[in-house]
Write a structure and sequence with these properties.
3 helices; mainly alpha; 69 residues
Amino acid sequence: MLTDNDVIEFQKLFNKQFGVVLSQDTAYRKLTMLVRQIELIYKPINLKRYEQYVNKDDKDDKTKEYIPR
């Protein structure tokens, strides 16, 4: 559940990033969609799977550089 403070903070961040002032309703809708998208794509990884990924033999895989260690 989003609070009024969440929406206000999103309005400030959106304005700072894009130079656009959003109404409360528009900000609420955009923030709700953003949170939902994150919920759909975020998949936590456990330590065992992380270690398997880091230790795999594919040394040329550049994506490893972006995983925090």
